[in-house]
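Hello,

Following up on my earlier ticket. Below are the two sequence lines again, exactly as submitted.
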Amino acid sequence: MTKQPGASSSAASVLHRIIVMLEVFSSVTLMSMMLLTFVDVIGRYILGAPVFGAAEMVSTMLALVIFAGLGIANARDKHIVVELFDARIRRLAPGWYDALVQGFSICAMSLIVYVLYEQAVEAAHVDSKTIVLELPLSWITGAIAFLAALSVVSQVLGLLTGAHTRDEHHLEDV
Amino acid sequence: MTIALIGFAVLLVLCFLGFRVGFATLIVGFVGFALERGFEASLAMVGQQVFHDSMNYNLSVIPLFILMGVLIVHARISQDLYDAAYAALGKYRGGLALATVLAAGGFSAVCGSTLATAATMSKVAMPPMRDYKYSDRLASGTIAAGGTLGIMIPPSVPLVIYGIIAEQDIGLLFIAGVLPGLLLVTLFLIVVGLVVRRDPLAAPPSPPLEPERRKEAIRGTMPVLILFLVVLGGIYSGAFTATEASGIGAFGAAVIAILRGNLRSLGEWRECLVDATVTTATIFLVLLGAVVFAQFINLSGLPYDLLDYVDEWALSPIQLVIFVCIIAILMGMVFEAIGILVLLVPVFLPALTVSGVDMIWFGILVVLVSEIGLITPPIGMNVFVVKSVLPDVKLSAIFRGVTPYIFALVAALMLVLAIPQIATFLPGLMR
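Thanks for your patience. The regenerated structure is below:
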């Protein structure tokens, strides 16, 4: 399983760009989510004027944050893992083990992309909109599906470039 | 029922082999549902669950409370908390260890992350304990155990996840966590006292804090106290929902960090926001996998078969709760809080509900059990976190150090089991 240095470095460069883009996008979205929630509460209780459609905007931002975050988490393989026997099993054939475990993750993520894409197509077909702001659901679901697809790309590139570091799993962060 | 048990077995094997928990639960749930209802139906179910839960307004509480915790860590407030706790308890034997417990409790009140609490306390509390020749066993054990307070004292992400799965009010759950959290702090303080009495050399005396530093530290902790009171007081008084409180809390944490001279560059902001985003994504992946898996389990009829067994065995509600807690303790040896919650709660939910178990009380019990899992072998996550921050301390010393705290946690579990009012009294006042 040897890798071409040129191909590997260009893959690393593409992965780096994707991660930077996702980091900036998710940071702005999460920050906006925090500010919007804060302004909505202050508006409601102090000024008597909540932000119109704040809950829908926050819901949309939540989905965008999750799937942008998954792109970063997938690239670095920062997922919850039960680290009991895996290190010993991996030592038997590290290359095959990584391919199997990461391949499984890629398949699972691809399933999410597919079902979200189907949801977006369905939403476009029936022209469904959110209740308050009447935002087209097909656009929202489509954006989430796109981010999920990007996370599959970052997963594959992470596997190819070795960005998945064994010691950095988020075993539990709460 | 058989297919559900096979599903659980496959899931456990995949997890033990090192497959990512979130992806494994999602795929096992998808395949299991497909075997029962067909491929197309399973695809539709996964699509609806993923879309619905990733856009659930009530779940926005998760990233915002995580952000609040990350911002509080970046506010570098832990040193003041520790010094203020030492100012209060430093005169007693083992004062530095007592201060560690109190500071961990205070930090948990605005952080909500057990790992962040353990890691931060390792950096703040270990150097002075080393300086005054505390035994590694007492020092590291106290830090690892103190970190577990992070998931009981509100805000707590596992309590949010439990609330979502069990369809319980998150605000009530937070309020319910207050007294058990205080009980745990008290029991941990008693443990320090007993350990020091048994082995005085484990904690040689240390000098009191200088008066100037004492005042400075107490002043420094005021914003944390105010933030905690605003967030929890807002929920308790009904002024905010938990989701609104999370937004207020995150904003307040950002203001505290800025006022303390941190978060002054875009790079620092980005680091915090990305950290919170990635943690959110990993938690949601497990959550989305779990809801898909739960659909499969519900379809298999396992929860209702269990209901029949409860009837057949004539289990009383308390016997049922003890039975579930024992399973949770066994799971806690392998899985962490979220794993226990997402795998265990949906299965026993119907049986517990029909038996008339107070689900707020049960939520506190499950989180208590998860806390035990955080410091017991083979996977005591907090122990490993302390080890990673303090590589020169032997793992065996940390595990020996946490042992008395495990007894304290078990005692707390038994107390909350025997006296449910410890968890239900405050929520009862709100209802």
